[in-house]
């Protein structure tokens, strides 16, 4: 397939359960599919994604490759975001960046969707598949505001329904259907006659530039929302709140961004991390006090032993918190890497 001057890009986001979902979707693409396909599947920084590339190449006739920076793209090809890097679109090429994590993820879905909306307006077709939490919702909202098409997997068809359900609830998907029906739908959408895209809303442009690291300063973030008394759990910076309909999002001036759900989950993980540090320090303090009590005078030893006992009370409390199995207190990670 040749490079196309005015593509109708298909951008896809998936997370937990993504390998099976993407395999089923890619199997439906015909050999002459007239558009480039871009995929972000959440994965851990330690994975390579080679397994997913191999599976997608084996699943259908289209060639799947890991995207690289400044790569020109072609119709009839699938481009997968590499691990620990964002994949963005500009006119005619792909950008791969080490920008700040969004919704605790890198690669994240929202930056890809947002950049596609800025570059290609109403020609973009966005698809959100299975996954935890709500990455992809804000990006899909950008696609919708720029006139593109929003497709969500039917939550009842998804292994993990959070992500598509969030799109349906907060954006209002143009199409909600099982994966089995998406191939035929895409073929129909490719035949549309489209008017010229209108202007892109300024807030979407600003966020797309932040993801490219073109902007990273206070004025650019202040233009997006209001400062709030929370700190970024990733870098400690001040956060600004942005409201998109009923969806609340937060962003710091260095580029980290979170939906409310992602922010709460990250805060919870930081609390757990802090508790483990506190437990280690209290146990070390208790061990030191026990050692000291063996060498001190009887009077001093009694006082030191009491302080060691007091430490044990705090140790027991922290251990009880860490052993908690309350799912609301300790939510799952937002993706399952599935070895990709």
Automatic annotation (TrEMBL):
GO biological process terms held by the UniProt record: chemotaxis
CDD domains: CheB (cd16433)
Domain CheB-type methylesterase: 3-193
Positions of region (Disordered): 292-311
Catalytic reactions of this protein: [protein]-L-glutamate 5-O-methyl ester + H2O = L-glutamyl-[protein] + methanol + H(+)
Active-site residues (renumbered): 15, 42, 135
GO-annotated molecular function: phosphorelay response regulator activity; protein-glutamate methylesterase activity
Keyword DNA repair attached: no
UniProt key word Hydrolase: yes
Known EC number: 3.1.1.61
UniProt entry keywords in alphabetical sequence: Chemotaxis, Hydrolase
Superkingdom of the source species: Bacteria
GO CC terms in record: cytoplasm
Name of the featured protein: protein-glutamate methylesterase
